[in-house]
Amino acid sequence: MSIQNRKKDHVSLCVTGDVNYAKTNGFGQYDFIHNALPELALNQIDVSAELLGRSFAFPLFISSMTGGYSGAVSVNEIIAEFCEAHQLPFGVGSQRAMLERPDERASFSIARKKAPTAFIAANIGGCQLPQLSRTDIDLMLDVIEADALIIHLNPLQELMQPEGDRDFRGILGSIGELCANLTVPVIVKETGAGISATVAAKLHQAGVRVIDIAGAGGTSWSKVENARSEKPNSLFDDWGIPTADALQMIQASKPEGLELIASGGIKNSLDMAKAICLGADFTAAAQPVIRAVIEEGRDGLQRWFREWERDFRFVLCLLGVQNIRQLSQQYLRKK
Ligand SMILES: Cc1cc2nc3c(=O)[nH]c(=O)nc-3n(C[C@H](O)[C@H](O)[C@H](O)COP(=O)(O)O)c2cc1C
């Protein structure tokens, strides 16, 4: 199957299919400690956040998703306009398709056209790195004037994909080379199975500045691939480290200077705030965004965001906290 058709399948399954983990993201183990005396006005609350030295209006990264097929132009256009308007960072989907088919570049370049000042990250799979030249990487970065390069690690997805990669050697070395040679920072993410403390330490040692956990609890890429497969293998549908658990494991030995994005099953502003209390610098979401875009278009995405943003402010108010830098574990209790 071509990359274009695969991507189309992925998007439609993530919107209409039953592709979520049975296990949860792990944030349900915690409850907030309610503050009956916030001594704050709602309009004093500041929800801005920083990542890689840049300031954003809200601590939510729109995760890498689309590009590389004709329908992706309008999806990336909507996401880009939205991120430009709300000062949110976002990533385009894997750019492998545009390296193989130059006519697919438009579905990526639209992102920069519609978001001239937003933070936009390029995206490629770790498995592809050993085969790519520096010219390929530069092309991916140039087409969107990228602010960062995201490399996704997805061994579970590859193994479940009948046509997927089977060789995971040489990825860490390639990441290290890119970190040493690129002028933009390198972010490494999973795609839903999570990143352990051991892997995080290796990535940081290789020069990675930001790790996006992309843990279990949201989209299960084993389920997505099984839904496309003629010979499904559901044994691994629930494989992965829940986002909250991965976050705590990494946080316990987090090296100085490493920034953490918590994602994977972040489904509302309560999950976002819990992740930041547990040490995340930023959060990210994919499936809720693509659902809003495909099901309800521009207006749906705006509505979805307005509600999340409003509820996030409510959480801070109910904790008696004025900004996200004040959020910490002291505002949570284990149930
Ligand atoms: C439709 C769709 C397409 C995706 N494509 C990519 C991709 O091209 N590159 C990537 O790094 N991650 C990709 N992902 C994974 C997400 O970025 C994210 O890490 C994962 O879905 C977990 O987040 P969620 O639980 O909020 O969906 C995709 C996710 C979705 C829903």
Quick structural overview:
By secondary structure, the protein is of the alpha/beta class. It has helices at residues 3-16, 72-86, 96-100, 106-114, 134-143, 155-160, 171-181, 197-205, 221-228, 243-252, 269-277, 287-319; strands at 30-32, 49-51, 54-56, 60-62, 90-91, 120-125, 148-152, 186-189, 210-212, 259-263, 282-285, 332-334.
Question: Mind explaining what this structure looks like?
Answer:
The chain is an alpha/beta fold and 335 residues long. The chain has one domain: TIM Barrel. The chain is 41% helix and 13% strand. It contains twelve helices and twelve strands. An eight-stranded parallel sheet has the order 4-11-10-9-8-7-6-5. Strand 8, helix 8 and strand 9 form a beta-alpha-beta unit. Helix 1 (3-16) crosses helix 9, helix 1 (3-16) crosses helix 12 (287-319) and helix 8 packs across helix 10 (243-252). It is globular, with a radius of gyration of 19 Å. The protein starts with a helix and ends with a strand. The model has no long low-confidence stretch (mean pLDDT 96). The structure holds flavin mononucleotide.
